[in-house]
UniProtKB/TrEMBL annotation:
It catalyses: ATP-independent breakage of single-stranded DNA, followed by passage and rejoining. The lineage of its organism: Eukaryota, Metazoa, Ecdysozoa, Arthropoda, Crustacea. GO terms for molecular function: DNA binding; DNA topoisomerase type I (single strand cut, ATP-independent) activity; zinc ion binding. It comes from Daphnia magna. This is DNA topoisomerase. Residues 203-624 form the Topo IA-type catalytic domain. Pfam families: Topoisom_bac (PF01131), Toprim (PF01751), Zn_ribbon_GRF (PF06839), Zn_ribbon_Top1 (PF01396).
Length: 1075
């Protein structure tokens, strides 16, 4: 049977033979595909797509397949290769620099309301930003199919850290994947093949050093930048109102170098000097100038005397003629710093652009790795092929061939980073279109050929003469072999002719004169000068110098003149002068140089990264606090540079001291800090989790709290021992149970106090999957014993639950109700009451128990008194006066609108404008609150009767001073039914007086809270859907909000009716009459 019966291209015998061949090849192809499917896959990740493409092309010899990944900028290249003594499938892809970013978590990312001091200890987490999610997904997908991972990132500190970010992502998918590091210095076949044959482990120490640097830069930079920006924008709104005033521990010392040179020029005072000069003109073409061996003197009289002495007998004696070989050394191999400096000086290309071009040339395979500190060619590096590939160039090809013929003789420096060789060309590039790329590549090639060539040779003749014992010197140069200068036009060495002079001869000079000169101020710094200073003092690294310079230019701290020299701007000058006036060396290189030295020790394994991190954070935190204390010196310094009158800036963080200690405890849900904060409208305080919005744990304090401070003493009753909190309340707000100043714990050990304030303890919530507190989150003190309460967070929650009733729920970010003057207690419901009417049953809190022993008070112990039972309000009492929330007589009106309430009377606020929203049906009976009934109340202190020793009349006191301050009697002047009636009130000025009020003729009843007779109403009780007070025989000052659920006079609760049809047994949302 034929395999292809319809394919009749040959006779039958040959057709069968043809089909057999086709069948055999199909089987071979199938077997090959099956074998490929069983191949081990190796994932290779480079730092950039160009590098990945070139590496794959070199290793595959051009036989690679390309396919798309999740990211359109990062392709995937596949080919087969022999590795680990077996055939493997190589998958090469890339990232785009750093894959992960670092930032603060939760509220710490906000500029407003966070004291910058807290940023030195705030939690930091690493995350993959949205822009790099596709790259991350590509790595995750390929990791699932791979057995090994090879890191091909740049072999420097940043490259090692990027490698560990890749490892972190891949090991999260496959923890047991084998990880290897490829080390290479250039993207050539020899280099990448050698790297593949000599795979090793990645260097964790180097990556840790980068992590330390990143975290410190984030903490220090964010703290100082927020501090400077938020303050100076307010002090100089016209000049700096929209400016970002950043700080960096490298950029500020860099700015300091510029300012220091500018000051040196400004402070320079030139000084005149005088010198002698001898000229001998043999003929019109030959002229010799002899320089004075004393150089110059600053005393004109002395020089004049010496001149006259020489002129007395001007005969010159040739005392010495010396001829010697003179060499001009070829340049050293090129490292990064020299590349930046020479490109700036010789090519007029700034350092930032130089490194950008060099990076591009490197990824294209034209030059070796451009970030290196080495200026020594390693012995194992064969330089002959590198020179050979340059012989084809028409400009320098002949010189390259002559170097090969004469033999390479590279000059060696003294520096080596043990990672990369000096910068050199790796292949010929004759088709570069960009002018700057072409200029930089040509410079690198010429520099390389010069350093492997020979020094320039010449003869130097030095002649010394004497006139009246004053010595003068002249020199001449004759070049005999230019050597490297032939290919290196960036340096000059010219002949200086000197006539034939013989020792012992005499001649008469043409002229002997005295010349006047003056000392010159130093020049402003060029970019090359600035880089030299940064390298000398250890500011940044060879890879970051250009970035720091660009930053101070972008922030307008310094500018560049037409000649390429740096001039400080007004803002930069003011900042440096301000910090210098504080005595803080932020503009000096010392702090950053010490950090760079410590990072080097971390790389070498000599120091622990956590130890270095802790030391540097403490050091900079101390400097920051000092800066905050003396911030006005920055204002004063900048005011001299801005044509604007400085404004008085309020204290940006009034809630806390300079130490920024607002942390109360650790959140039981996410383990981040619970901090004390002020509300946005500055009308109160609250405790909230710094993990917001992922974590919404919070404690909202009522507006009756005037001031809150976290105390140094801790609670001994709670297992986690949180700190005590000092409260200052509105006068009389919680009398007689608590004084106006009280210190206690809010961890849950005093449930009565918390219920009185309407707050609940923090408990653990279900963890949100987006919670910032993850494995990638760390705090500054993560590696040492924390001074917070992280270890007690769970016990903190459990203790709270054990001391509360089952009705206590989780506190969220919903704020509690905000009363106008007096507080409302918390309800027993798990849902907080908000302003307006409420349909939820409430109950008044039980009287507070005696505080725990550890809860000491700033003033005397609170005066405890059991409240009286709440009596029924008389329903038909003609003397009843209805008072609205404005403490005014309410207006009685009648419903005119057609409907079920037509003709029904109600009370509302009498004010036409700015009135309250008080509303109460006139026929609504008052509820009788009970332990299971609605009827919200706040305990107001009754009038205190101080009984005299002689048994006379008792004295009425207000709430002040714990109920010991005598009240004042005043008379009602306002026209109305109470005109002329006397009442008691606080005797202090209106701004500071407490809320005590009582009619004199009430016979001891308290209109402010607990009325003593059986007919008085509870001071904050009330019925209806709004807030109000009903008082028999007088008006109480308390304002309460009752339940909208009506109660009978006997205290029995009425059956709830439908709001639509008025029938019992169902509610409005289940009404059968609603379709």
């Amino acid at each position: 049977m034929l395999l292809f019966p319809r394919l009749k291209l040959f006779p039958r015998s040959k057709q069968v033979q043809f089909n057999v061949v086709v069948f055999t090849r199909c089987c071979e192809t199938y077997a090959k595909l099956a074998n490929t499917c069983k191949m081990v896959q190796v994932l290779n990740v480079a730092e950039k797509n160009d590098a990945a493409k070139n590496i794959a092309e070199l290793l595959s010899r051009g036989r690679m397949n390309r396919r798309e990944g999740k990211s359109k900028f990062n392709k995937i290249y596949e080919f087969e290769h022999n590795l680990f003594n077996q055939a493997v499938k190589m998958v090469v892809t890339s990232v785009s620099g750093h894959l992960l970013s670092s930032d603060f978590v939760g509220n710490y990312k906000k500029w407003q309301g966070i004291n910058p001091v807290a940023l030195f200890e705030a939690p930091i987490h690493k995350f993959c930003s949205e822009d790099y999610q596709n790259i991350k997904r590509t790595l995750e997908d390929e990791t699932k199919k791979s057995k090994y991972l090879i890191i091909w990132t740049d072999c420097d500190r940043e490259g090692e850290n990027i490698g560990y970010e890749i490892i972190q992502v891949c090991q999260a998918i496959k923890p047991n994947i084998g990880v290897f590091r490829a080390k290479f210095s250039e993207i050539t076949y020899q280099s990448v093949a050698r790297a593949l044959q000599n795979l090793g482990p990645p260097n964790k120490n180097v990556s840790d050093a980068v992590d330390v640097r990143i975290e410190l830069d984030l903490r220090i930079g964010a703290a100082f930048t927020r501090f400077q920006t938020l303050r100076l924008q307010k002090v100089f709104p016209n000049s700096l109102g929209q400016s970002m005033i950043s700080y960096g521990s490298c950029q500020f010392p860099t700015l300091g170098f510029i300012v220091e040179r500018y000051r040196a020029i400004e402070d320079f005072v030139d000084e005149k000097f005088w010198k002698l000069k001898v000229v001998w003109e043999l003929n019109e073409e030959e002229r010799v100038e002899f320089l004075w061996k004393r150089h110059h003197l600053f005393n004109q009289t002395v020089v004049q005397i010496l001149l006259e002495k020489c002129l007395e007998n001007p005969e010159a004696d040739i005392v010495k003629v010396q001829t010697k070989n003179k060499s001009k050394w070829r340049p050293l191999p090129l490292d990064t710093v020299e590349l930046e400096k020479l490109a700036s000086r010789k090519l007029r290309i700034n350092a930032k652009e130089t490194m950008k071009i060099a990076e591009k040339l490197y990824t294209q395979g034209y030059i070796s790795y451009p970030r290196t500190e080495t200026n020594i060619f390693p012995k194992e590096l064969d330089l002959n092929p590198l020179v050979q590939c340059q012989t084809v160039d028409p400009s320098w090809g002949g010189f390259a061939q002559r170097v090969l013929d004469e033999g390479l003789n590279p000059r060696q420096g003294k520096k080596s980073d043990q990672a990369h060789p000096p910068i050199h060309p790796t292949k010929y590039a004759g088709n570069l279109a960009n002018e700057n790329e072409r200029k930089l590549y040509e410079f690198i090639v010429r520099h390389f050929l010069a350093c492997v060539s020979k020094d320039a040779q010449g003869y130097e003749t030095v002649a010394e003469i004497q006139i009246q014992e004053e010595g003068f010197v002249a020199s001449g140069l004759q070049i005999v072999a230019r050597n490297y200068l032939e290919v290196y036009p960036y340096e000059r060495w010219s002949d200086r002719s000197l006539p034939l002079l013989n020792q012992g001869e005499q001649f008469t000079p043409t002229s002997i004169t005295m010349e006047e000169g003056a000392t010159c101020a130093p020049q402003l710094l060029s970019e090359a000068d600035l880089i030299s200073l940064m390298e000398k003092h250890g500011i940044g690294t060879d890879a970051t110098h250009a970035d720091h310079i660009e930053t101070i230019k972008a922030r307008q701290y310094a500018g560049v003149q037409a000649d390429g020299r740096f001039l400080p701007c007004s803002l930069g000058m003011g900042l440096v002068q301000g910090y210098d006036a504080m005595g803080i060396a932020l503009s000096k290189p010392n702090l950053r140089a010490e950090l760079e030295a410590d990072l080097k020790r971390v790389c070498d394994g000599e120091r622990s990264p956590n130890e270095v991190l802790r030391e540097q954070i403490d050091r900079y935190r101390q400097v920051f606090v000092q800066a905050m204390e003396q911030v006005t010196k920055i204002d004063e310094a900048l005011s001299t540079f801005f044509d604007e009158e400085r404004q008085e800036a309020p204290a940006p963080y009034p809630d806390v001291g300079l130490d920024g200690n607002t942390s109360y405890c650790k959140c039981p849900s996410c383990n981040l800090d619970i901090t004390l904060r002020r509300k946005k409208d500055n009308n109160g305080f609250f405790f909230s989790c710094m993990g917001y919005p992922q974590c919404k744990n919070a404690i909202w304090l009522p507006t009756t709290v005037q001031q809150v401070e976290i105390d140094a003493q801790t609670c001994t009753a709670c297992p986690s021992h949180p700190p005590l909190v000092r409260f200052k309340f509105n006068p009389g707000a919680y009398a007689p149970f608590y004084p106006d100043t009280h210190r206690c714990c809010i961890g849950g050990c005093d449930p009565n106090f918390m219920e009185l304030l309407g707050i609940r303890p923090l408990v653990s919530q279900p963890r949100n999957q987006n919670n910032p507190q993850s494995n990638n989150t760390r705090t500054a003190n993560e590696s040492r014993n924390s001074s917070g309460y992280a270890s007690g967070s769970q016990s903190f929650a459990s203790s709270a639950n054990s001391t509360r009733s089952s009705g206590v729920g989780v506190t969220t970010s919903i704020p509690p109700p905000r009363p106008q003057a007096q507080p409302r207690p918390a309800t027993s419901s798990n849902t907080r009451i908000v302003s307006g009417s409420s349909n939820r049953n409430t109950r008044p809190p039980a009287p507070p128990a005696a505080p725990a022993a550890n809860q000491s008070n700033a003033s005397s112990q609170p005066y405890f008194r059991q409240p009286m039972p709440l009596p029924q309000r008389p329903e038909n009492n003609s003397d009843t006066v209805i008072v609205c929330n404005c403490s005014q007589d309410a207006m009685l009106l009648t419903v005119r609108k057609e409907g079920p309430n037509t003709g029904r009377q109600f009370y509302k606020c009498a004010k036409q404008q700015d009135g309250c929203n008080f509303f109460l049906w006139a026929d609504t009976p008052a509820p009788v609150p009970s332990s299971s009934e609605a009827g919200e109340a706040t305990f107001r202190q009754p009038a205190v009767r101080n009984q005299p020793p002689d048994g006379g009349d008792s004295e009425t006191c207000c709430y002040c001073d714990g109920g010991r301050e005598p009240a004042t009697i005043r008379t009602t002047q306002k026209p109305g039914p109470n005109c002329g009636r006397q009442f008691y009130c606080c005797g202090k000025p209106r701004e500071v007086q407490c809320k005590f009020f009582e009619w004199v003729d009430d016979n001891g009843a308290s209109g402010g809270g607990f009325d003593q007779g059986p007919q008085e109403a509870f001071g904050r009780g009330g019925a209806g859907s709004s807030r109000g007070t009903i008082s028999s025989r007088g008006r109480g000052r308390g304002r309460g909000r009752g339940s909208s659920n009506e109660s009978s006079a006997t205290g029995e609760r009425k059956t709830r009716k439908c709001g639509n049809c008025g029938q019992e047994g169902h509610t409005r949302n289940r009404c059968p009459d609603i379709e």
